[in-house]
Design goal:
- Residues 45-240 form the YgjP-like metallopeptidase domain.
- The chain is 34% helix and 29% strand.
- With 244 residues, it is an alpha+beta fold.
- It binds zinc ion.
- Residues 206, 210, 216 line the site of zinc ion (ZN).
């Protein structure tokens, strides 16, 4: 695999943070923007959110060093590119670790997804491209919330939590879940739906362990590992955006 560096000459639009530098790299024939920022705290770290690839480093880098770093991180960046939850150009999405092709069919005045079958019960009136995109996201969200709720109920019983948490989904990029212990409410990231069931369950177990301990103390981790011995492996996959 070849990575070439094309430094941008023009000033950036929209403006990035002052100390960030944007570079354009080519990975597998795809142009990718990678931002570099000096940070005293980080020797060298790659941070990927849904809309930004950022390298934090603790000193000014030479072009060669940047090239080396990119080689080191290229596997993670490739995974990130692959990890689009819905690919509208190639008509597929990932859901609970599985890849599904989708297809739209018409029935009288309305439309429905003839593939995959777990979405075929929903019908809709408008098949314009933008509407389809919104519809597909909405339906997957709905299915995912149903799935999450049943899994949380299951784990609440196993972990002997004697109340039911309220569950909601949010567009979260910084965390996978948050337990608002006092409100008995857990919010999960929408970005989770593409991952395998065991990865999602590791996030559920983490959040439910907060029902016992609010912090990340030893006692907290003891509970997490009791119910999810593979927690470390699963978290690695999660952060590398390996769906299964
Ligand atoms: Zn936590």
């Amino acid at each position: 695999m070849k990575n070439s560096i094309l430094k941008e000459k023009k000033p950036l639009k929209p403006p990035t943070r002052k100390k960030e530098k944007k570079y354009l790299f080519e990975i597998e024939n795809q142009k990718v923007e990678v931002f570099f920022r000096i940070s005293k705290k980080h020797f060298c770290t790659l941070k990927i959110t849904s809309n930004k690839i950022l390298v934090l480093h603790n000193k000014t880098l030479q072009e060669k060093e940047i090239e080396t770093l990119l080689k080191i991180f290229s596997e993670n960046i490739k995974n990130h590119l692959k990890a689009q939850r819905i690919d509208f150009d190639n008509l597929y999405f990932y859901f609970l670790g599985q890849k599904y092709d989708y297809q739209i069919a018409q029935k009288g005045q309305s439309f429905y997804f003839s593939k995959p079958t777990f979405l075929s019960k929903y019908t809709f009136r408008n098949n314009e491209e933008e509407k389809i995109k919104d519809k597909l996201k909405e339906l997957l969200e709905r299915e995912f919330l149903k799935y999450l709720t049943s899994k949380v109920r299951y784990w609440e019983k196993i972990m002997e939590i004697n109340y039911e948490n309220e569950i909601a989904l949010r567009e979260k990029n910084s965390t996978w879940g948050t337990n608002y212990i006092k409100q008995k409410k857990i919010i999960f990231s929408k970005n989770l739906w593409a991952f395998s069931q065991e990865i999602i369950e590791s996030v559920i177990i983490h959040e439910l362990s907060h029902c016992f301990w609010g912090d990340h103390s030893k006692k907290f981790w003891a509970i997490v590992y009791k119910f999810c011995p593979d927690y470390q492996i699963l978290t690695k996959k999660l952060n590398k955006k390996e769906f299964n």
